[in-house]
Amino acid sequence: MAVTAGASAVPRKDGFYDKYIRNYQILTPAQLKRLAEHKYSATGTSLIEPFMQVFWRWLVERVPLWWAPNAITIVGLLVNVITTLILVFYSPDCKQEAPSWAYYFSGLGLFIYQTLDAIDGKQARRTKSSSPLGELFDHGCDSISTGMIVLSGRAQFVASEPMTKDFCRLRVLLTMA
């Protein structure tokens, strides 16, 4: 029995879990129908998002069409992980102070990650390559990045140089704004 995938009208072969979903009634037919009809929709509630949307729309128009949205997602994740690992290298238990450049580098990495995370979906819609798998991949990378953001944010509380400390506070504030 073929199951219709997400937003696609093309039937696909049963996946590994499809027989269990049907046989054990994990989801009711109404829930399965709702799942098949699901369309991802996010609304921004950030104070700075309206301003950033202008920048993100401008930026995505400069991204080559051949650059896959999932590649944008993974590059953003790698930037976030690498800049966080630099902080962890200097302050493995978040008690030692790292060099001030490492805090600034981490803030830049966070900005790059958030920018790439914001434009990957725009690129997917632009190239007509949106898919439930791409959405899952994006959310998976976002969950890893959340841990990195918390870790780097915690490491920044030990900064003692006044300008670096102010930058770290601003970074935390803008991340939550």
What's the gist of this structure?
Helices cover 65% and strands 2% of the residues. The protein contains seven helices and two strands, in the order E-E-H-H-H-H-H-H-H. It has a two-stranded antiparallel ribbon.
Could you give the order of strands across the largest sheet? 1-2
Tally of individual helices: 7
Helix content: 55-70%
Radius of gyration from the alpha-carbon trace, in angstroms: 20 Å
Q: Report strand %.
A: under 5%
Overall geometry = globular
Count of individual domains: 2
Order of helix and strand elements from N to C terminus: EEHHHHHHH
As an assembly, this protein is single chain
Class from helix and strand fractions = mainly alpha
Mean pLDDT: 84
Q: Using DSSP, what is the number of strands?
A: 2
